[in-house]
Amino acid sequence: MKASIRTKILGALFFITLLTFAVVFYYSLQGMRNLGRAAVAYGDQLGQGLTGDGRSALIRQAMQELRSTAADQAYITELLLKGVSLPIENIAPNVSSPRVVPGLSEAPGLLYSDQSAVVPPDPEECAAYSLSTETPFEVKNDKAVLHRLSSMVPFLIYLKNSSPHIRLAFASFPNGVHLKYPWSRTVLGFDPRSRSWYTEAVAQKGKLCWSEPYWSATGSNELTITCSKAVYGADGKLVCVLGADVSVEAVSREFITSQTGRAGMPFLVNSKGEVIAGGDIYRRLSGEWDKTARLPSLLSGISSDGPVLWEKMKTMTSGILRLRINNVPCFAAYAPIRECRWSLAILLPEETALKDVAAMEVRFKKTQEDTLPVFRSYIFERGVIFISLSLILLVLILLFGYFMAKHLTRPIFKLMDGAKEIGTGHLDARIELNTGDELERLGDTFNKMACDLQTYIRNLNQAARDRQRVESELKAAAEIQLSMLPRTFPPFPERTEVDIYARMIPAREVGGDLYDFVFVDDRHLFFVIGDVSGKGMPAALFMATAKTLMRGFARNGLSPAQILHMANNYLADENESCMFITVFCGILDCSTGEAVCCNAGHNPPLRLAPDGNSSFLRLPPGFPLGPFATEFSSVYKEEHFTLAKGEVLFLYTDGVTEALNPRDELFGEGRLELALAAAPPESNSLKETTDVLLRILHEHVAGAPQSDDITMMMIQFNGEKTV
Predict the structure, then answer these.
(1) Which residue from 62, 163, 194, 345 has the highest number of Cβ atoms inside 10 Å of its Cβ?
(2) 495: three-class secondary structure by DSSP
């Protein structure tokens, strides 16, 4: 038993109500649980956000402080280096010309030094001089030399005492004499002229220069850097090279002193990217005075990110970047020391910079754990209240749904009764609803539908009668048109010298194609094929007129060109619709096979050999009949050819070659030749050849609608006389 609409509505509302209760109840429970989890997650997110903000703020602060520290440290280091280089600049003019102290036989406080020399009680109380292996030994006791060296000792003492970081002050002369203060032993084989600080100073022509770190030759074998300057006399000749040694240990100790109380690891880098100071590098390296000092390089061995840092530092600019040193994330601030084209960098591990954030995360997690029980108790209380209110609301929805279903189904039943009455054929019945809503508009729609159905049925009956009348007229017209075309084949059974077969398939009830043939005398056969522009009744009437004219002119003995010329002028005389027809016509001598033909814009025919080989006739295109009158000699030209025995002349309209398949591919002239070759005339009748061609054509179109009339005609010359 089928349920009524009211029962279905009530059942649907009841089901929806129960489903709503179940869903709300389920999601309320899930919601309470999810709310607790969400509170915890939100707390985590909030904590992460706060710690993230704190992390970002600390990172910015650390980067700013680290960059300032690097700039300050670079400035301090540059002042330290200037404290060494400025005294050299100050005393250089005083030693550029020799000064000899009269009456001195030996310079006080000036002692000779070599590898075996005895150390004086107080090296600070005297200076030392030494000779290179290439310097004549007599120079050792040369009074003039000693006087010259004695005069320079006060300047070296001044230079040594000008900065606490200077370990040794010296002057080296072009003849290999080396003067230094304070006194120290000189290693065997020492030649100051071969040292890098000497050669670089001479190359700089009086400019200050700082050497790369090297192993000292004073006996202490310390890692040393030297500031040196070449001094020239008034004659432009080199007097000596002044210099001051500073130990790398002192530079590193200065870094440590200035960094006390600050985080980070500073280090100095020379112009080659080598670390020359920083940490305990001076303790971890050792070497010989005559060997090149091998220093750690930023380009290799320090870190994979060392080259990145060096690319920034060698530009002699300041900045900060983040990189990894020994797989530890660090901040690296760098600043230039332009005094010697060095650069300073300070490394600070991110973990050190963010230690306060880690402590804040621990405190926040403890606070979150203490707050979680309070959240759960509050969520449980609110959950009970929410579920109670949901139950009350669901009961009210059920009551409201019951009364609304009862109210809504009443006009629906009335609408159903009215629709049933209209459906039984009482189209005059009307449905009266006064609900003021969509149901009332639906009832009005039913009433309008009934009225429209009455009108539609009347119009449909009238259209059916009109269509039946038109179909009858078109059928009669089609029969008349077909009766105008030869349909009996063979048409001349008593004449064996020629055989003819033709077929016309209109695209509509009536078509615009034509074909015709008639003996104009005992020997000559007139044949014609044509295609009228357009389809339907106008094309059929135009075709009938053209066919009648050309048959009449042919029987009056006119040539093909004259026939086309006369037919064109007659058709163009009253052709207000500007219709036209393409025509191919000719006259065949049935005794000899000679043919004369003329073309009026039609497809050229094919000559089909008995074995199936074919070729198109090459003809002037001519001009279609009907658009306007022409002079006789200006348009239509006749052509002559001779058919061999058994040869067939195949004439057709463009409905054959322009037949389309579902892929919009034309049948074309190539497929036409292949289709004709499939049924050669020597083994098939003309009808059989035509049937094979039509079958191949239908296979090509594959059910696509016919868009144009299809007409074809075959004329076979047999070469036999009628007995």
Answers:
(1) 345
(2) coil
3-state secondary structure of 487: coil
Question: Do 88 and 162 touch, CB atoms closer than 8 A?
Answer: no
For the chain, report the end-to-end CA distance as a whole number of angstroms.
91
| pLDDT(442) > 70 | yes
Question: Who has greater pLDDT, 457 or 617?
Answer: 617
- 713, 528 Cβ separation under 8 angstroms: no
**Contact partners, residue 604, CB within 8 Å, separation at least 6:** 584, 616, 617, 618, 619
CA distance 226 to 85: 10
More confident residue, 591 or 355: 591
pLDDT digits (tens, 9 = 90+) for 93-137: 888 765 543 433 344 588 888 767 778 888 888 898 888 888 887
Statement: 489-717 belongs to CATH 3.60.40.10? yes
The CA-based dihedral angle spanning residues 300, 303, 306, 307, taken in that order and rounded to the nearest 10 degrees: 50
How far, in whole angstroms, is CA 178 from its chain's centroid?
72
Q: Note the pLDDT of residue 252.
A: 72
Among 246, 244, 211, 216, which residue's Cα sits nearest to residue 87?
Answer: 244
DSSP structure string for 125-174? G-EEEE--TTS-GGGGG-HHHHHHHHHHHHHHHHHHHT-TT--EEEEE-T
Amino acid at 33: R
How far is the C-alpha of 547 from the C-alpha of 571, rounded, in Å? 11
Instruction: Return the pLDDT at 509.
Output: 66
Q: What single DSSP character describes residue 680? A: -
Cβ atoms < 10 Å from Cβ of 686? 23
| Average pLDDT of the segment spanning 180-188 | 85
**Dist. CA 539–CA 505, nearest whole Å:** 14
Longest dimension (CA), the chain: 169
For helices 5-91 and 355-423, angle between their N-to-C axes, nearest 10 degrees: 150
The pair phi, psi for residue 660, each rounded to 5°, is -105, 145
Q: Looking up tokens 């797989």, which residue turns up?
A: 327
- Domain extents in the chain: 96-247, 425-484, 489-717
Cα gap 658→670, rounded to integer Å: 12
Mean pLDDT confidence for 263-290 = 64
**To the nearest 5 percent, what fractions of the chain are helix, strand and coil?**
45, 20, 35
CB 247 within 8 A of CB 282: yes
**CATH code for the domain defined by 96-247:** 3.30.450.20
